[in-house]
Amino acid sequence: MELSLEHRREGNRTVLEVGGEVDVYTAPKLREKLVELVGEGHHQIVVDMTKVEFLDSTGLGVLVGGLKRVRSHDGSLSLVCNQERILKIFRITGLTKVFPIHDSLDEALQDS
Amino acid sequence: MKSDVELRLPPDVQYVGLARLVVTVAARQAGMADERVEDLKIAVSEATTNAIRAHRQAEEPRPVVLSFGPTTDDTFGVTIVDTGPGFDPLPPDAHERREWTEESGLGVTLIRGLADDVEFVRGEGMRVNMRFAVGLTVNGQGHNGSD
Q: CA B52, CA B60: separation in Å to the nearest integer?
């Protein structure tokens, strides 16, 4: 499955909906999208990973890069993920301590 | 390890998805539980990515070779061999000391966390031997990525 990327505004946040597989082949597209969004002034980003079918360390690295970019603008990057198989790789790598991870988009948007 | 199938991949990252697909189909055919197939899929992706990147960096045109299949002890084995420059894997607890801002270096951590057994052998390139329980445990022991 290819990678799908769609973004929209929700109040003062930008929701980036990611779907499909994020690996070494597709991750550059996600990186480009995050760079583009931050460059356009979107500094409060919620990455909705509900429709992600697969994510490996290449995708984790891109998300870390995105977090660094928004933080350099005093922004934030949080994640929506309710799939155990993906949450597991955040736990193994210790990144649950780095990213705010929410069960639902509503929860992420309510989080201040 | 008794490996029944061999897959030779050109050193191009577009083939990492193919490696995941083929190995996971073989694991399901061997009766592997769905939860373990997900672990296997990520570990195969990581090791194949490392191997293909090594070939790309060394401008090595030869294929990366995966061999895989059920073993005699109710596990599924995967061996990934490259002829790149090789690397010395970080120790198992290295990720606990890494800075969160580093964008790479998590692949070996994931392989170690997801496989029931893994061995990194540096020779002419790298050989990564991984084993996964076909059921949810190996000899009654839970694997180290489940908690």
A: 9
Residue among B40, B60, B42 at smallest CA distance from B51: B60
Backbone angles phi, psi at A111, to 5 degrees: -70, 130
For A89, the closest of B14, B35, B110 (CB atoms) is B110
pLDDT of A18 reads 98
Q: Using beta carbons and an 8 Å cutoff, which residues of A are at the interface with B? A: 21, 23-25, 54, 56-58, 60-62, 64-65, 68, 85, 88-89, 92-95, 97-98
Average per-residue pLDDT for chain A: 96
Domain contains A69:
yes
What's the token pair of residue B140? 């009654």
Partner residue facing A94 (CB), from B35, B53, B95:
B95
CB B125 within 8 A of CB B81: yes
Give the model confidence (pLDDT) of A92-111 as tens digits. Answer: 999 999 999 999 999 999 98
ipTM passes above 0.85? yes
Alpha-carbon gap, residue B114 to B110, rounded angstroms = 6
Helices vs strands, H then E, count in chain B: 3, 7
* Domains of chain B, each with CATH number or no CATH: 5-142 (3.30.565.10)
pLDDT at B1 over 60: no
Q: What is the CATH number of the domain that holds A19?
A: 3.30.750.24
Strands A101-102 and B117-123: unpaired
